[in-house]
UniProtKB/TrEMBL annotation:
SUPFAM superfamilies: Nucleotide cyclase. GO terms for cellular component: plasma membrane. GO terms for biological process: cell adhesion involved in single-species biofilm formation; negative regulation of bacterial-type flagellum-dependent cell motility. Its cofactor is Mg(2+). Coiled coil: none annotated. InterPro entries: 7TMR_DISM_rcpt_extracell_dom1, Diguanylate_Cyclase, GGDEF_dom, Nucleotide_cyclase, Rev_trsase/Diguanyl_cyclase. It comes from Lysobacter arseniciresistens ZS79. This is diguanylate cyclase. It catalyses: 2 GTP = 3',3'-c-di-GMP + 2 diphosphate. One of its GO terms (molecular function) is diguanylate cyclase activity. Its EC number is 2.7.7.65.
Protein backbone atom coordinates (compact mmCIF):
# COMPACT_ATOMS: atom_id res chain seq x y z
CA UNK A 1 0.00 0.00 0.00
CA UNK A 2 3.04 2.30 -0.18
CA UNK A 3 4.81 4.38 2.44
CA UNK A 4 2.88 5.89 5.39
CA UNK A 5 2.99 9.31 3.70
CA UNK A 6 1.64 7.88 0.46
CA UNK A 7 -1.10 6.04 2.34
CA UNK A 8 -2.05 9.24 4.18
CA UNK A 9 -2.22 11.24 0.95
CA UNK A 10 -4.32 8.65 -0.78
CA UNK A 11 -6.58 8.11 2.22
CA UNK A 12 -7.18 11.84 2.39
CA UNK A 13 -7.87 11.83 -1.35
CA UNK A 14 -10.41 9.06 -1.14
CA UNK A 15 -11.90 10.35 2.11
CA UNK A 16 -13.16 13.45 0.34
CA UNK A 17 -13.50 12.00 -3.17
CA UNK A 18 -16.89 10.56 -2.41
CA UNK A 19 -18.11 13.93 -1.20
CA UNK A 20 -18.56 14.67 -4.90
CA UNK A 21 -21.17 11.89 -4.88
CA UNK A 22 -22.32 11.83 -1.28
CA UNK A 23 -22.88 15.59 -1.35
CA UNK A 24 -24.32 15.21 -4.82
CA UNK A 25 -27.05 17.75 -5.43
CA UNK A 26 -30.13 15.56 -5.59
CA UNK A 27 -33.12 17.70 -6.54
CA UNK A 28 -34.34 17.67 -2.94
CA UNK A 29 -31.05 18.58 -1.37
CA UNK A 30 -31.18 22.34 -1.67
CA UNK A 31 -34.18 22.59 0.60
CA UNK A 32 -33.89 19.70 2.98
CA UNK A 33 -32.79 21.57 6.12
CA UNK A 34 -35.04 23.15 8.67
CA UNK A 35 -34.03 26.13 10.74
CA UNK A 36 -35.08 27.18 14.22
CA UNK A 37 -38.77 27.79 14.93
CA UNK A 38 -39.98 31.28 14.07
CA UNK A 39 -40.59 33.55 17.04
CA UNK A 40 -44.20 34.63 17.51
CA UNK A 41 -45.44 33.05 14.29
CA UNK A 42 -48.11 30.40 14.03
CA UNK A 43 -48.44 28.44 10.80
CA UNK A 44 -51.39 26.55 9.39
CA UNK A 45 -51.76 24.70 6.10
CA UNK A 46 -54.51 24.24 3.54
CA UNK A 47 -53.99 21.13 1.40
CA UNK A 48 -55.79 22.49 -1.65
CA UNK A 49 -55.44 25.14 -4.34
CA UNK A 50 -58.66 27.20 -4.42
CA UNK A 51 -59.07 30.57 -6.06
CA UNK A 52 -56.70 33.05 -4.36
CA UNK A 53 -59.53 35.57 -3.81
CA UNK A 54 -61.39 33.06 -1.62
CA UNK A 55 -58.31 32.32 0.46
CA UNK A 56 -57.19 35.92 0.94
CA UNK A 57 -60.69 37.01 1.93
CA UNK A 58 -60.46 34.71 4.97
CA UNK A 59 -63.52 32.69 4.06
CA UNK A 60 -61.46 29.47 4.09
CA UNK A 61 -59.58 30.09 7.35
CA UNK A 62 -61.55 27.35 9.08
CA UNK A 63 -60.09 24.77 6.69
CA UNK A 64 -56.47 25.55 7.57
CA UNK A 65 -54.82 23.02 9.86
CA UNK A 66 -52.07 23.95 12.30
CA UNK A 67 -48.60 23.09 11.02
CA UNK A 68 -45.17 22.63 12.65
CA UNK A 69 -43.87 25.69 14.41
CA UNK A 70 -41.75 27.89 12.23
CA UNK A 71 -41.42 25.48 9.29
CA UNK A 72 -43.24 25.21 5.98
CA UNK A 73 -43.04 21.50 5.29
CA UNK A 74 -44.15 19.67 2.15
CA UNK A 75 -43.72 15.91 1.86
CA UNK A 76 -44.43 15.71 -1.87
CA UNK A 77 -44.48 17.97 -4.94
CA UNK A 78 -47.66 19.98 -5.33
CA UNK A 79 -49.44 23.24 -4.48
CA UNK A 80 -50.65 24.24 -1.01
CA UNK A 81 -51.55 27.37 0.96
CA UNK A 82 -50.01 28.50 4.22
CA UNK A 83 -51.38 31.07 6.69
CA UNK A 84 -48.91 33.01 8.84
CA UNK A 85 -50.19 34.85 11.91
CA UNK A 86 -48.02 36.90 14.25
CA UNK A 87 -48.94 36.65 17.93
CA UNK A 88 -47.44 40.08 18.59
CA UNK A 89 -47.37 43.32 16.65
CA UNK A 90 -44.41 43.85 14.33
CA UNK A 91 -43.61 47.59 14.02
CA UNK A 92 -42.70 49.00 10.62
CA UNK A 93 -39.82 51.10 12.03
CA UNK A 94 -37.41 48.11 11.91
CA UNK A 95 -38.22 47.47 8.23
CA UNK A 96 -39.32 43.90 8.91
CA UNK A 97 -39.32 41.11 6.32
CA UNK A 98 -40.90 37.71 6.23
CA UNK A 99 -37.90 35.45 5.52
CA UNK A 100 -38.22 31.95 4.07
CA UNK A 101 -34.81 30.30 4.38
CA UNK A 102 -33.52 28.15 1.52
CA UNK A 103 -36.76 27.71 -0.46
CA UNK A 104 -34.87 25.95 -3.27
CA UNK A 105 -36.85 25.63 -6.49
CA UNK A 106 -40.19 26.23 -4.75
CA UNK A 107 -42.33 29.05 -6.14
CA UNK A 108 -43.92 31.20 -3.46
CA UNK A 109 -46.56 33.91 -3.80
CA UNK A 110 -47.26 36.12 -0.75
CA UNK A 111 -50.43 38.13 -0.06
CA UNK A 112 -49.99 40.80 2.60
CA UNK A 113 -52.91 42.18 4.63
CA UNK A 114 -55.08 44.47 2.58
CA UNK A 115 -53.32 43.76 -0.73
CA UNK A 116 -55.24 41.90 -3.43
CA UNK A 117 -52.14 40.99 -5.47
CA UNK A 118 -49.12 38.89 -4.47
CA UNK A 119 -45.83 40.65 -3.83
CA UNK A 120 -43.47 37.75 -4.50
CA UNK A 121 -43.31 34.92 -7.00
CA UNK A 122 -40.24 32.81 -6.55
CA UNK A 123 -36.97 32.96 -4.62
CA UNK A 124 -35.56 36.43 -4.40
CA UNK A 125 -38.47 38.26 -6.01
CA UNK A 126 -39.72 41.02 -3.77
CA UNK A 127 -36.49 41.03 -1.73
CA UNK A 128 -34.45 44.21 -1.35
CA UNK A 129 -32.29 44.94 -4.38
CA UNK A 130 -29.05 42.98 -4.56
CA UNK A 131 -30.05 40.22 -2.13
CA UNK A 132 -28.87 36.70 -3.10
CA UNK A 133 -30.93 33.52 -3.20
CA UNK A 134 -30.35 32.33 0.35
CA UNK A 135 -33.92 33.20 1.23
CA UNK A 136 -37.16 34.61 -0.07
CA UNK A 137 -37.53 37.95 1.71
CA UNK A 138 -40.98 39.55 1.60
CA UNK A 139 -40.92 43.15 2.92
CA UNK A 140 -43.61 44.31 5.35
CA UNK A 141 -43.65 48.09 4.70
CA UNK A 142 -46.53 48.65 7.10
CA UNK A 143 -45.41 46.11 9.66
CA UNK A 144 -47.83 43.50 10.93
CA UNK A 145 -50.43 43.80 13.61
CA UNK A 146 -51.08 41.06 16.13
CA UNK A 147 -53.49 38.52 14.66
CA UNK A 148 -53.10 39.69 11.07
CA UNK A 149 -52.57 36.92 8.53
CA UNK A 150 -50.19 36.62 5.61
CA UNK A 151 -51.12 34.01 3.02
CA UNK A 152 -48.49 32.07 1.06
CA UNK A 153 -49.19 29.97 -1.99
CA UNK A 154 -46.37 27.40 -2.20
CA UNK A 155 -45.76 25.35 -5.33
CA UNK A 156 -43.18 22.73 -4.31
CA UNK A 157 -41.09 20.97 -6.95
CA UNK A 158 -39.91 18.42 -4.39
CA UNK A 159 -40.29 17.62 -0.69
CA UNK A 160 -39.09 20.57 1.33
CA UNK A 161 -38.80 22.05 4.80
CA UNK A 162 -38.44 25.85 4.80
CA UNK A 163 -37.89 27.76 8.06
CA UNK A 164 -39.96 30.95 8.33
CA UNK A 165 -39.36 33.99 10.51
CA UNK A 166 -39.81 37.76 10.63
CA UNK A 167 -36.48 39.61 10.70
CA UNK A 168 -35.57 43.31 10.75
CA UNK A 169 -33.59 44.57 7.78
CA UNK A 170 -30.37 44.94 9.80
CA UNK A 171 -30.39 41.31 10.84
CA UNK A 172 -31.26 40.26 7.31
CA UNK A 173 -28.29 42.21 5.95
CA UNK A 174 -25.92 40.66 8.46
CA UNK A 175 -26.97 37.14 7.53
CA UNK A 176 -26.70 37.95 3.85
CA UNK A 177 -23.15 39.27 4.26
CA UNK A 178 -22.06 36.01 5.84
CA UNK A 179 -23.91 34.07 3.20
CA UNK A 180 -22.33 36.03 0.34
CA UNK A 181 -18.84 35.60 1.82
CA UNK A 182 -19.25 31.82 2.02
CA UNK A 183 -20.65 31.52 -1.48
CA UNK A 184 -17.97 33.76 -2.97
CA UNK A 185 -15.28 31.60 -1.36
CA UNK A 186 -16.90 28.41 -2.65
CA UNK A 187 -17.30 29.77 -6.18
CA UNK A 188 -13.68 30.95 -6.19
CA UNK A 189 -12.66 27.48 -5.06
CA UNK A 190 -14.62 25.87 -7.89
CA UNK A 191 -13.07 28.23 -10.45
CA UNK A 192 -9.54 27.67 -9.17
CA UNK A 193 -9.91 23.89 -9.13
CA UNK A 194 -11.45 23.92 -12.60
CA UNK A 195 -8.51 25.95 -13.93
CA UNK A 196 -6.04 23.57 -12.32
CA UNK A 197 -7.86 20.55 -13.73
CA UNK A 198 -7.89 22.18 -17.16
CA UNK A 199 -4.17 22.90 -16.94
CA UNK A 200 -3.32 19.34 -15.91
CA UNK A 201 -5.61 17.91 -18.57
CA UNK A 202 -4.04 19.97 -21.35
CA UNK A 203 -0.50 19.59 -20.04
CA UNK A 204 -0.52 15.90 -19.12
CA UNK A 205 -3.31 14.55 -21.27
CA UNK A 206 -4.73 12.37 -18.50
CA UNK A 207 -8.46 11.82 -19.08
CA UNK A 208 -9.16 11.74 -15.36
CA UNK A 209 -8.51 15.47 -15.15
CA UNK A 210 -10.96 16.02 -18.00
CA UNK A 211 -13.68 14.10 -16.15
CA UNK A 212 -12.86 16.02 -12.97
CA UNK A 213 -13.06 19.31 -14.87
CA UNK A 214 -16.49 18.38 -16.18
CA UNK A 215 -17.71 17.39 -12.69
CA UNK A 216 -16.38 20.60 -11.15
CA UNK A 217 -18.01 22.78 -13.79
CA UNK A 218 -21.32 20.95 -13.41
CA UNK A 219 -21.21 21.24 -9.63
CA UNK A 220 -20.37 24.94 -9.90
CA UNK A 221 -23.25 25.44 -12.34
CA UNK A 222 -25.70 23.81 -9.94
CA UNK A 223 -24.28 25.79 -7.04
CA UNK A 224 -24.68 29.09 -8.91
CA UNK A 225 -28.13 28.16 -10.26
CA UNK A 226 -29.59 27.12 -6.93
CA UNK A 227 -28.11 30.19 -5.22
CA UNK A 228 -28.98 32.73 -7.89
CA UNK A 229 -25.45 33.78 -8.84
CA UNK A 230 -26.15 32.48 -12.33
CA UNK A 231 -28.29 35.60 -12.84
CA UNK A 232 -25.12 37.64 -13.08
CA UNK A 233 -24.21 35.85 -16.34
CA UNK A 234 -25.79 37.62 -19.32
CA UNK A 235 -28.17 35.39 -21.25
CA UNK A 236 -28.49 32.78 -18.50
CA UNK A 237 -30.55 34.80 -16.04
CA UNK A 238 -33.85 33.92 -17.69
CA UNK A 239 -32.91 30.40 -18.77
CA UNK A 240 -31.51 29.14 -15.47
CA UNK A 241 -32.24 31.86 -12.93
CA UNK A 242 -35.99 32.37 -13.32
CA UNK A 243 -37.25 29.12 -14.81
CA UNK A 244 -37.86 26.46 -12.09
CA UNK A 245 -36.55 23.85 -14.50
CA UNK A 246 -33.12 25.43 -14.27
CA UNK A 247 -32.30 24.10 -10.80
CA UNK A 248 -33.54 20.60 -11.64
CA UNK A 249 -31.59 20.47 -14.90
CA UNK A 250 -28.44 21.77 -13.23
CA UNK A 251 -28.86 19.18 -10.48
CA UNK A 252 -29.24 16.35 -13.00
CA UNK A 253 -26.23 17.56 -14.98
CA UNK A 254 -24.07 17.71 -11.85
CA UNK A 255 -25.22 14.23 -10.84
CA UNK A 256 -24.42 12.77 -14.27
CA UNK A 257 -21.00 14.42 -14.41
CA UNK A 258 -20.14 13.21 -10.91
CA UNK A 259 -21.23 9.66 -11.69
CA UNK A 260 -19.09 9.74 -14.82
CA UNK A 261 -16.03 10.91 -12.93
CA UNK A 262 -16.36 8.36 -10.12
CA UNK A 263 -16.99 5.57 -12.63
CA UNK A 264 -13.72 6.46 -14.33
CA UNK A 265 -11.83 7.00 -11.08
CA UNK A 266 -12.88 3.60 -9.71
CA UNK A 267 -12.28 1.90 -13.10
CA UNK A 268 -15.75 0.45 -12.77
CA UNK A 269 -16.03 -0.84 -16.34
CA UNK A 270 -13.04 -3.17 -16.07
CA UNK A 271 -13.11 -4.11 -12.39
CA UNK A 272 -16.85 -4.41 -11.73
CA UNK A 273 -18.68 -4.77 -15.06
CA UNK A 274 -22.04 -5.73 -13.50
CA UNK A 275 -22.04 -2.69 -11.24
CA UNK A 276 -20.88 -0.56 -14.15
CA UNK A 277 -23.92 -1.62 -16.14
CA UNK A 278 -26.17 -0.74 -13.19
CA UNK A 279 -24.62 2.72 -12.82
CA UNK A 280 -24.78 3.23 -16.58
CA UNK A 281 -28.48 2.31 -16.49
CA UNK A 282 -29.13 4.85 -13.74
CA UNK A 283 -27.23 7.46 -15.73
CA UNK A 284 -29.42 6.69 -18.76
CA UNK A 285 -32.53 7.16 -16.61
CA UNK A 286 -31.22 10.50 -15.36
CA UNK A 287 -30.54 11.56 -18.94
CA UNK A 288 -34.10 10.72 -19.95
CA UNK A 289 -35.38 12.62 -16.91
CA UNK A 290 -33.34 15.65 -17.95
CA UNK A 291 -35.06 15.58 -21.33
CA UNK A 292 -38.43 15.29 -19.59
CA UNK A 293 -37.57 18.25 -17.36
CA UNK A 294 -37.00 20.34 -20.46
CA UNK A 295 -40.67 20.00 -21.33
CA UNK A 296 -41.74 20.85 -17.80
CA UNK A 297 -42.67 17.41 -16.39
CA UNK A 298 -41.13 18.23 -13.02
CA UNK A 299 -43.72 16.58 -10.80
CA UNK A 300 -42.52 13.04 -11.44
CA UNK A 301 -38.96 13.86 -12.60
CA UNK A 302 -37.68 14.77 -9.15
CA UNK A 303 -38.69 11.62 -7.20
CA UNK A 304 -37.54 9.26 -9.96
CA UNK A 305 -34.24 11.13 -10.23
CA UNK A 306 -33.72 10.76 -6.50
CA UNK A 307 -34.34 7.01 -6.67
CA UNK A 308 -31.99 6.58 -9.65
CA UNK A 309 -29.30 8.59 -7.90
CA UNK A 310 -29.58 6.54 -4.72
CA UNK A 311 -29.36 3.28 -6.69
CA UNK A 312 -26.23 4.53 -8.46
CA UNK A 313 -24.71 5.59 -5.13
CA UNK A 314 -25.48 2.15 -3.69
CA UNK A 315 -23.80 0.45 -6.66
CA UNK A 316 -20.71 2.59 -6.20
CA UNK A 317 -20.69 1.79 -2.50
CA UNK A 318 -20.76 -1.95 -3.26
CA UNK A 319 -17.95 -1.45 -5.75
CA UNK A 320 -15.92 0.32 -3.06
CA UNK A 321 -16.43 -2.52 -0.58
CA UNK A 322 -15.43 -5.11 -3.16
CA UNK A 323 -12.47 -2.99 -4.15
CA UNK A 324 -11.30 -2.74 -0.56
CA UNK A 325 -11.43 -6.52 -0.23
CA UNK A 326 -9.36 -6.77 -3.42
CA UNK A 327 -6.93 -4.13 -2.07
CA UNK A 328 -7.75 -1.58 -4.77
CA UNK A 329 -6.42 1.71 -3.50
CA UNK A 330 -8.95 4.09 -5.12
CA UNK A 331 -11.85 2.03 -3.77
CA UNK A 332 -10.57 2.26 -0.22
CA UNK A 333 -10.17 6.00 -0.40
CA UNK A 334 -13.60 6.55 -1.92
CA UNK A 335 -15.16 4.38 0.79
CA UNK A 336 -13.48 6.44 3.49
CA UNK A 337 -14.79 9.57 1.82
CA UNK A 338 -18.34 8.39 2.38
CA UNK A 339 -18.09 8.86 6.14
CA UNK A 340 -17.67 12.67 6.52
CA UNK A 341 -20.02 13.46 3.64
CA UNK A 342 -22.60 11.06 4.98
CA UNK A 343 -22.42 12.72 8.39
CA UNK A 344 -23.25 16.09 6.85
CA UNK A 345 -26.14 14.66 4.85
CA UNK A 346 -27.57 12.77 7.82
CA UNK A 347 -27.40 15.91 9.95
CA UNK A 348 -29.20 17.91 7.28
CA UNK A 349 -31.79 15.19 6.78
CA UNK A 350 -32.48 14.95 10.49
CA UNK A 351 -32.97 18.70 10.64
CA UNK A 352 -35.32 18.49 7.67
CA UNK A 353 -37.41 15.96 9.59
CA UNK A 354 -37.52 18.28 12.58
CA UNK A 355 -35.41 15.98 14.78
CA UNK A 356 -33.03 18.78 15.69
CA UNK A 357 -32.34 22.45 15.02
CA UNK A 358 -29.49 22.62 12.50
CA UNK A 359 -27.07 25.56 12.67
CA UNK A 360 -26.92 27.81 9.66
CA UNK A 361 -23.30 26.85 8.91
CA UNK A 362 -24.40 23.34 8.01
CA UNK A 363 -25.48 24.58 4.60
CA UNK A 364 -22.08 26.20 4.05
CA UNK A 365 -20.29 23.06 5.28
CA UNK A 366 -21.89 21.05 2.49
CA UNK A 367 -20.67 23.48 -0.15
CA UNK A 368 -17.21 23.74 1.37
CA UNK A 369 -16.98 19.94 1.43
CA UNK A 370 -17.52 19.87 -2.32
CA UNK A 371 -14.63 22.24 -2.97
CA UNK A 372 -12.36 20.44 -0.53
CA UNK A 373 -13.33 17.13 -2.13
CA UNK A 374 -12.36 18.46 -5.55
CA UNK A 375 -8.97 19.57 -4.23
CA UNK A 376 -8.24 16.22 -2.61
CA UNK A 377 -9.45 14.34 -5.69
CA UNK A 378 -6.94 16.31 -7.73
CA UNK A 379 -4.23 15.26 -5.27
CA UNK A 380 -5.44 11.68 -5.64
CA UNK A 381 -5.27 11.83 -9.43
CA UNK A 382 -1.77 13.30 -9.22
CA UNK A 383 -0.73 10.53 -6.84
CA UNK A 384 -2.15 7.94 -9.23
CA UNK A 385 -0.19 9.52 -12.08
CA UNK A 386 2.95 9.41 -9.96
CA UNK A 387 2.38 5.71 -9.33
CA UNK A 388 1.92 5.09 -13.06
CA UNK A 389 5.09 7.06 -13.73
CA UNK A 390 7.01 5.10 -11.12
CA UNK A 391 5.79 1.83 -12.61
CA UNK A 392 6.69 3.04 -16.09
CA UNK A 393 10.15 4.11 -14.92
CA UNK A 394 10.62 0.73 -13.27
CA UNK A 395 9.64 -1.10 -16.46
CA UNK A 396 11.89 1.21 -18.46
CA UNK A 397 14.78 0.53 -16.11
CA UNK A 398 14.21 -3.21 -16.35
CA UNK A 399 14.32 -2.87 -20.14
CA UNK A 400 17.39 -0.62 -20.05
CA UNK A 401 19.56 -2.39 -17.48
CA UNK A 402 20.53 -6.01 -17.07
CA UNK A 403 19.18 -7.14 -13.70
CA UNK A 404 22.08 -9.55 -13.05
CA UNK A 405 25.11 -7.36 -13.72
CA UNK A 406 23.67 -3.86 -13.56
CA UNK A 407 25.12 -3.12 -16.99
CA UNK A 408 23.03 -1.82 -19.88
CA UNK A 409 20.90 -4.38 -21.67
CA UNK A 410 21.79 -5.26 -25.25
CA UNK A 411 18.93 -3.26 -26.85
CA UNK A 412 19.84 -0.22 -24.76
CA UNK A 413 23.52 -0.60 -25.60
CA UNK A 414 22.78 -0.97 -29.30
CA UNK A 415 20.71 2.22 -29.18
CA UNK A 416 23.49 4.17 -27.46
CA UNK A 417 26.14 2.78 -29.77
CA UNK A 418 24.13 3.84 -32.82
CA UNK A 419 23.73 7.36 -31.43
CA UNK A 420 27.44 7.55 -30.51
CA UNK A 421 28.57 6.37 -33.95
CA UNK A 422 26.32 8.93 -35.67
CA UNK A 423 27.63 11.69 -33.41
CA UNK A 424 31.26 10.62 -33.93
CA UNK A 425 30.89 10.69 -37.74
CA UNK A 426 29.20 14.08 -37.63
CA UNK A 427 31.69 15.72 -35.23
CA UNK A 428 34.82 13.87 -36.35
CA UNK A 429 35.66 12.72 -32.79
CA UNK A 430 37.14 9.26 -32.13
CA UNK A 431 35.19 6.34 -30.68
CA UNK A 432 36.40 2.94 -29.54
CA UNK A 433 34.80 -0.20 -28.14
CA UNK A 434 36.10 -3.02 -25.96
CA UNK A 435 34.53 -6.47 -26.36
CA UNK A 436 35.34 -9.11 -23.72
CA UNK A 437 34.12 -12.32 -22.16
CA UNK A 438 35.07 -14.56 -19.22
CA UNK A 439 37.58 -17.28 -19.94
CA UNK A 440 36.24 -20.82 -19.50
CA UNK A 441 32.95 -19.55 -18.12
CA UNK A 442 31.04 -22.60 -19.36
CA UNK A 443 33.21 -24.80 -17.14
CA UNK A 444 32.25 -22.67 -14.12
CA UNK A 445 28.56 -23.19 -14.84
CA UNK A 446 28.97 -26.91 -15.54
CA UNK A 447 31.13 -27.65 -12.48
CA UNK A 448 29.58 -25.34 -9.88
CA UNK A 449 26.09 -24.50 -11.13
CA UNK A 450 24.43 -21.43 -12.52
CA UNK A 451 24.09 -19.75 -9.12
CA UNK A 452 27.89 -19.59 -8.80
CA UNK A 453 28.09 -18.58 -12.44
CA UNK A 454 25.70 -15.67 -11.81
CA UNK A 455 27.79 -14.54 -8.84
CA UNK A 456 30.85 -14.82 -11.09
CA UNK A 457 29.34 -12.40 -13.58
CA UNK A 458 28.20 -9.96 -10.87
CA UNK A 459 31.70 -9.73 -9.39
CA UNK A 460 33.35 -9.30 -12.78
CA UNK A 461 30.86 -6.61 -13.82
CA UNK A 462 31.48 -4.77 -10.55
CA UNK A 463 35.29 -4.92 -10.87
CA UNK A 464 35.34 -3.82 -14.50
CA UNK A 465 32.77 -1.06 -14.06
CA UNK A 466 34.84 0.45 -11.24
CA UNK A 467 37.78 0.86 -13.67
CA UNK A 468 35.79 2.82 -16.24
CA UNK A 469 35.56 6.57 -16.61
CA UNK A 470 32.34 8.39 -15.75
CA UNK A 471 31.38 8.86 -19.40
CA UNK A 472 32.14 5.28 -20.49
CA UNK A 473 29.25 2.85 -20.93
CA UNK A 474 29.22 -0.90 -20.36
CA UNK A 475 26.53 -3.30 -21.56
CA UNK A 476 25.89 -7.02 -21.43
CA UNK A 477 25.89 -8.30 -24.99
CA UNK A 478 24.80 -11.85 -24.19
CA UNK A 479 25.80 -14.67 -21.82
CA UNK A 480 29.20 -13.73 -20.40
CA UNK A 481 30.01 -11.29 -23.20
CA UNK A 482 30.33 -7.61 -22.32
CA UNK A 483 30.90 -4.54 -24.47
CA UNK A 484 32.32 -1.21 -23.34
CA UNK A 485 31.84 2.02 -25.33
CA UNK A 486 34.65 4.57 -24.96
CA UNK A 487 33.65 7.97 -26.40
CA UNK A 488 36.34 10.38 -27.57
CA UNK A 489 38.98 7.66 -27.23
CA UNK A 490 41.68 6.58 -29.72
CA UNK A 491 42.77 2.97 -30.14
CA UNK A 492 45.96 3.26 -28.09
CA UNK A 493 44.09 4.81 -25.15
CA UNK A 494 41.34 2.20 -25.49
CA UNK A 495 43.96 -0.56 -25.28
CA UNK A 496 45.09 0.93 -21.97
CA UNK A 497 41.52 0.94 -20.66
CA UNK A 498 41.09 -2.70 -21.74
CA UNK A 499 44.32 -3.64 -19.96
CA UNK A 500 42.97 -2.02 -16.79
CA UNK A 501 39.82 -4.12 -17.09
CA UNK A 502 41.84 -7.29 -17.53
CA UNK A 503 44.08 -6.58 -14.55
CA UNK A 504 41.08 -5.63 -12.37
CA UNK A 505 39.70 -9.17 -12.78
CA UNK A 506 42.83 -11.35 -12.58
CA UNK A 507 44.53 -9.39 -9.80
CA UNK A 508 42.96 -11.55 -7.11
CA UNK A 509 40.57 -14.55 -6.93
CA UNK A 510 36.82 -14.18 -6.56
CA UNK A 511 35.35 -15.30 -3.21
CA UNK A 512 32.01 -17.07 -3.72
CA UNK A 513 30.37 -19.31 -1.08
CA UNK A 514 33.62 -19.40 0.94
CA UNK A 515 35.54 -20.66 -2.09
CA UNK A 516 38.13 -18.89 -4.22
CA UNK A 517 37.90 -18.86 -8.01
CA UNK A 518 40.50 -17.58 -10.44
CA UNK A 519 39.02 -15.45 -13.19
CA UNK A 520 40.51 -14.00 -16.38
CA UNK A 521 39.22 -12.06 -19.36
CA UNK A 522 39.92 -12.10 -23.06
CA UNK A 523 39.41 -8.70 -24.66
CA UNK A 524 39.21 -7.24 -28.14
CA UNK A 525 39.46 -3.54 -28.99
CA UNK A 526 38.49 -1.61 -32.12
CA UNK A 527 38.35 2.06 -33.07
CA UNK A 528 35.62 3.44 -35.33
CA UNK A 529 36.80 3.99 -38.90
CA UNK A 530 35.53 6.66 -41.27
CA UNK A 531 32.08 5.80 -42.61
CA UNK A 532 31.95 2.57 -40.58
CA UNK A 533 28.67 1.16 -39.24
CA UNK A 534 27.94 -0.05 -35.73
CA UNK A 535 27.70 -3.63 -36.92
CA UNK A 536 31.11 -3.54 -38.58
CA UNK A 537 32.72 -1.86 -35.57
CA UNK A 538 31.41 -4.52 -33.19
CA UNK A 539 32.38 -7.25 -35.63
CA UNK A 540 36.00 -6.03 -35.67
CA UNK A 541 36.09 -5.88 -31.87
CA UNK A 542 34.68 -9.43 -31.75
CA UNK A 543 37.34 -10.55 -34.20
CA UNK A 544 40.01 -9.08 -31.94
CA UNK A 545 38.43 -10.92 -28.97
CA UNK A 546 38.60 -14.19 -30.91
CA UNK A 547 42.28 -13.53 -31.59
CA UNK A 548 42.85 -13.13 -27.83
CA UNK A 549 41.15 -16.50 -27.28
CA UNK A 550 43.22 -18.34 -29.85
CA UNK A 551 46.43 -16.74 -28.56
CA UNK A 552 45.97 -18.25 -25.09
CA UNK A 553 43.30 -16.12 -23.33
CA UNK A 554 43.81 -13.55 -20.54
CA UNK A 555 45.06 -10.91 -22.95
CA UNK A 556 44.08 -7.81 -24.96
CA UNK A 557 44.07 -7.65 -28.74
CA UNK A 558 43.40 -4.55 -30.79
CA UNK A 559 42.15 -4.30 -34.37
CA UNK A 560 43.82 -1.37 -36.09
CA UNK A 561 41.57 0.09 -38.81
CA UNK A 562 44.64 1.35 -40.69
CA UNK A 563 45.86 -2.21 -41.27
CA UNK A 564 44.43 -3.70 -44.47
CA UNK A 565 43.15 -7.22 -44.59
CA UNK A 566 41.08 -9.23 -42.19
CA UNK A 567 43.75 -10.09 -39.64
CA UNK A 568 43.82 -7.97 -36.50
CA UNK A 569 47.09 -6.60 -35.18
CA UNK A 570 48.20 -8.25 -31.93
CA UNK A 571 48.82 -5.59 -29.32
CA UNK A 572 49.48 -6.97 -25.83
CA UNK A 573 49.72 -10.15 -23.80
CA UNK A 574 50.45 -10.67 -20.11
CA UNK A 575 53.84 -11.82 -18.97
Amino acid sequence: MGTPLQRWKLCLCGCLAFALLAAMPWPTQASSDAGPPASGLSLSRLDADPVPRDVVSGSLDHRFQAGPGGVIRESAPGVSWWRLVSATAVPATAQPHIVLDRPGAARVQAWLPGQPMPVADGPGNGAPAGFPQRALAVPLPDGLQAGQAVYLRVRAMAPLAVPVDIEPLVQLHQRELVHVAWRAAVLCGFVLLALLALGFWVGIGERGYGYLLLALLAQAAFFATSGGEIRLVPGLATVLGEDPRGVVLASLAATLATLGFLTHYLELRGRHPALFRLVAGCAAVLLVLAMAALVGALRWVVPIAEIAGLVAAGALLVACVRGCIARERPAGFVLLAWLPALAVLVAGGAAGLGLWVAPEWLEHARSAALVLAGAVIMIGLTDALQKVRRDRDRVSRLATFDTLTGALSRPAMEERLAAAVTDAHRSGTPLSVVFFDVDRFKRINDDHGHRVGDSFLRFIALRTRNRLRTYDLMGRWGGDEMIVMLPDTRLNEALGVAENLRSAVNCRPLSIDDRLFDATLSLGVAELAAGETVEHLVERADSALYSSKTAGRDRVTGHDPRVTGSHPRFVATPD
